[in-house]
Amino acid sequence: MSSTLHPHSETSQAAAGGLTVFAAVMMLVLGLVNLFRGIMAIVHDHVFVTTPDYIFKFNLTSWGWIHLLLGLAALMVGVGLFRVSLWARILGVAVAALLMLANFLSIPYYPLWSIVAIALCAFVIWGLCVVRQDDSWT
């Protein structure tokens, strides 16, 4: 539709594009950090705090592989989000939710970063969910 019929459509499209780009960049940051975090846990698991009686206890090498794979998925989705496609937004929400869950479960092993990552995932999910299909730029 023409911007003369909807005077705020250009502003709306710019905001939608900005939120999607924000989510894409944050997804790339989360992907890189989780990739490095996974490598750290696989190679040198003594970097992490050990928690003896944690109910969701995993071997730190297992946590490393989980974070490594989620980091790779976040990187791929982050790149896809620059195309502003619906499938990338849906996968972005799913991967951010999985990252949020993984970081929640690993709070005892790396508390500060886990809480920061949960907040970043929440912003990514928000940024991807507030964009309507008709607001996407092509």
UniProtKB/TrEMBL annotation:
Keyword Transmembrane helix on entry: yes
Superkingdom of the organism of origin: Bacteria
TM region(s), chain numbering: 21-43, 63-82, 87-106, 112-131
Pfam families: DUF7144
DUF7144 domain location: 20-132
Assigned keywords, A-Z: Membrane, Transmembrane, Transmembrane helix
Protein name, per record: DUF7144 domain-containing protein
